[in-house]
User: Fold this.
Amino acid sequence: MRPGGLLAIASTISSTALSQSPLPTFVRFRAPHRNHSIFSHAFNHTASGRSSGPSCSLQNRRIFFGGSNALMSLEAVVRNRESLEKKSAAIRSAGPSKLQVIADFDGTLTKYTVDGRRGQTSHGLLQQGNAEYDAKRQALYDYYHPLEYSPTIPLEEKTKLMEEWWEKTHGLLVEGGLTFDAIKKSVADATIAFRDGVVELFEFLEEKDVPVLIFSAGLADIIEEVFRQKLHRSFKNIKVVSNRMVFDDNDRLISFKGKTIHVLNKNEHALDMAAPVHDNLGDPNGSVNDYSLVKNRTNVLLLGDHIGDLGMSDGVEYENRISVGFLNGNTEESIGSYREAFDVVYLNDASMWGVIELASQLCSSDQ
Assistant:
């Protein structure tokens, strides 16, 4: 994180940005040294419902992980502490068997900044090895990307434009002869990295048998290659719901499975459209029966870096949802809208340690 800590962050947020509603709760987390437990209960509750963790004021709540040697500190904004604690208690009471995690990939699980440079997205890192087709895809980006964020285009029209963009891009990947070797090389050369603590989060959720649905409008094959190269392992509880490629015997792209998933339909309804390979946890050749087990998990921990990512849970009839947003930049301009949209907002390209702490509390048997 940037030097300066909590006071530096607080001083960059103007009174104007916070004037529309009551002051949020600022939370400072400390990531533990590797020799200390990362699962101390920062949100520990007593029977009375009051926090039995470190004392704090509403406007400046400080929560510390176990261990005196901190790797780094994180700043977060909690919209409504009482609401968060109520949701946490309900989810904890229902148990891990009713919980699922829904996460965006780019800018959420991955860092926004890598070694001082803007990190690449899973779609943006791809190089076909064919300069002509790379240029054609860039031209599509230059045309459609401004339309994606245009405030004047109606949603229905914008949805059609996004479908058009994705289908043209996929067509160029097929026409340009993309190979799996090109994907592996693109990932190896890419400026992309997972947030600190992502592995520990996945390991904890796997241990608790909590499924993780990673929704992406990008390319599943690239995301999975990022897992292989950056984490060097897979997780049985993780399902990538994204656009999946079909390769021939020579590892050359020939088509895509299922219907196109783009930025405006990236939610659990996409599971109904995705290829059958997406319909099972841990078994790409399985039936759709396990899909119902995910649907029956009515408590959601949602992770995203854009307000639009809140729509990832639109297909879930959830009872309780805790939303965590990562505000990677433009704090001054965006803190107000992010605070209103998410239950918890982490600032400045934060690590995943705070989410680990929250997840461990949600899965705790302590009442």
